[in-house]
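Lab notebook, design round three. We kept the backbone fixed and only want residue identities now. Task for the bench partner: fill in a sequence for the structure below.
Input structure tokens:
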């Protein structure tokens, strides 16, 4: 660990979900991943927000393709990515803007400070 840096706090969704509030307060996210248990390709969207944004909202970061039955995500180590509101992760059926997945098919994981 670098001098003066806070330890990372790993956290994961308690159950399968279509979205998850990883942090309802400002934070720095170092990594965000999701396991897609559905039968189709979905997209991991990450938002600087305290609650799930409305469908049609563009994510804060570049969406990540998550094929059926796989895990994928994004890594912003070592500095991390600062979220001023909080951090919400979601599975979308569309790439560019949020179209929330129709059912609880994702297991989310983040490392944050």
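Proposed sequence:
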């Amino acid at each position: 660990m670098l001098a003066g840096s806070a330890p990372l706090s790993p956290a994961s969704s308690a159950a399968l979900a279509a979205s998850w509030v990883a942090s309802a307060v400002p934070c720095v996210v170092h990594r965000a991943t999701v396991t897609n248990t559905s039968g189709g390709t979905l997209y991991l969207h990450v938002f600087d927000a305290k609650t799930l944004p409305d469908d049609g909202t563009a994510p804060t970061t570049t969406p990540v393709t998550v094929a059926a039955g796989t895990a994928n995500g994004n890594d912003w180590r070592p500095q991390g990515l600062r979220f001023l509101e909080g951090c919400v992760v979601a599975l979308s059926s569309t790439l560019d803007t949020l179209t929330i997945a129709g059912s609880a098919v994702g297991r989310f994981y983040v490392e944050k400070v």
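Keep this in mind before ordering anything: Residues 12 and 75 are 16 Å apart (CA to CA).
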